[in-house]
Structures are given as C-alpha cells and as structure tokens.
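Lab notebook page, bench 4
Experiment: in silico fold of construct C2
Operator: M.H.
Input chain length: 137 residues
Purpose: comparison with the prior construct
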Amino acid sequence: MEGGIERGRLDYETEVMELFGFDSIRNNISVEDFQISSPKVKVGDSLEVSFKLLNKNDQTTKIRLEYGIYYQKANGTLTKKVHKISEKEYAGNSTTRITRKHSFRVVTTRKFHLGLHQIAIIINGSEFEKYDFDLIG
C-alpha cells in the first residue's frame, strides 16, 4: 500500500509540473557525472555538489531544477527538504555544468543530527538517484 501512495504522489507532482509548462523529462533530460566534493561534511561547513545536466531534446526545454536533502532525524529516520536551484529554459542538445553549495551552519531554527544524510537531484518533479554523505561533528 505504501508504494502505491508514493507512486500516486509522483504522478500528481508530474501533472502539476505539466500545468505550469514543465514537460515530462522521460528519456530527454539526464544527470551525469554527479560529484560530492567531500562525502564527510562537518557541522558548520557546506556540502558542495556538481553535475552535468544534459538536454537531449532538439529544442529549448523549460526545466525546474531542484535538489532534495534527506536530513537525519533524532529517531534515525530521514526526512526530505527540497531546495530550488533554477527554473529556466535550457538550449536543445546542450550540456550544462551545475555546482551548488548547501550550508550546514548552526542556526537557532534547526538542529542537525550527525550521521547518514542523502541528496538527490529533482528535475521537473522527478527525483533522480540518491547519494549518501555523512554529517560529522
């Protein structure tokens, strides 16, 4: 049952993205050469990632590019928070190198829990592979 709920949610997100002019990315957009600068991030430092975004369409494509951080919770489970990178048109048959830093500095509104965290790229509402990194003290 749980898988069905998640699948329905993904279909809903894809439908909503299409209403806002974002086409399905099936077979036309891909992420390659994903790199995490350091698989161990110290609280107070930043996680830096980079990757290539490939638009294999012949024409310009409107893309909403986001990343999801799966934060460690006190009970050991992970919870996702989505962060926007960009929302723009990418030229047809193009490759774009994307680099992003995500801060893990301490602020009063959030508490970090050490251990396994994950990051995933999200394109037009579709999430790609998750990558692991460790938050250390």
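Observations: The longest helix spans residues 2-19. The chain has a mean pLDDT of 85.
Next step: discuss at group meeting.
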